[in-house]
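Discrete fold record:
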Amino acid sequence: MSLLHNDNTELETVSLLEVENIHISKSTSNITKLYIFNFLTGFSLISGIIIPFYLIYGGFTFFEFMLLQSYYAFILLLLEIPCGIIADKLGKKFALILAAISFLLIPFVYGILSSKFLFFIGETLFAFSFALISGTNEAIIADNLKIMGKEKRFMKVVALNDGMFLLGLIISAPLGSFITSFVSIQFTILLMIIPYCLSLIVTFTIHKTGSKVNVKRKSAQILKSGFRLLWKNKILKILVFENIIIEILIIFLVFTYQYYILIEFNIPIFYFGFIEAGLTLSQFTFLNIIPHLANSAVHKKKILLVNTIVPGIGYLLIAWINFAPAVIFLFLIVIGLGLSRYIIFTNGINRQIQHDNRATILSSINVISGTLKAILYPLIGLLIMINMNFLYLLVGVIILLIALKSKVKKEYL
């Protein structure tokens, strides 16, 4: 009897190990598929010709373009909490499938004809897609790394995952400007159906992990709880607001640099995609270097300081220099460093958030970011129409002041 009992125990142990290995294998596969999904959704052929797309194809003025971006930020703001609930209650896989379907509809909307009304529909679909992805990506990574027992790799995996989205932009941007120069913007838009269709296929292959959260509260209640968490948690409040403010100031350059080089230097559209690829490659490079350099709290603090001061100085130099190659180089530095600094905050922010409602709380944080963007974008549109160099000078000074007054301590990161 004892021998039989031992045999059964051994069989049970082997069985448990097999089940655990299957779960680990599925989790590894999920993260790989998430990389592929982000690469395909980042394969936006119009990313390198954003200003020609809106100003020439869409017929918008730059101020109207910024108003449209404000509309996008406002819609994203409205959708963040509901989409966070979808991810928590109906499942993160379902949220990604829905996002992929929304992405797939976008080329059809923009590619039908050049209509300002259709642009509003397209922006709504973009907002819906990114609201679904927002927080869900990081929640999936956190869930699967926990199963794999590799939670400490969270920051590096998030960086690589975001890097795959940027890699899609790097490859697609010059390709999009090349196709536009020899065919048309409309044809370039319709070609985006291919990567978006493939991204939808990938989402269906993702394995479900973790359990759904039973969310019964209304959006207003969830938003209120998110604000309450920020208000009560001093560390989270400091990390979130300093991250958001600098990010918005750097994004101003992302929106304005094409208009700047078109007006100031009259650079042909053909080169826009290659410049965009260079900017994205710079961000991709820094995004993957920083996690390796930031292997301690002390290093994180020092890197964060560099990633704030250098973009601030870069803005000041752009306002004073009138030499195209030098200005483009400064674009590379400001955007590359400025838009990769968030990865330093990510780990600290996630350590302050409970696991059960991570997707919803991250969406609540994005609501704050969206509100500020919706308010500030039209103002930037006005300032850029008045004097671009003054705008860059002003933003540079603000960034440097924030760096000098920073309340982020090394133990927060």
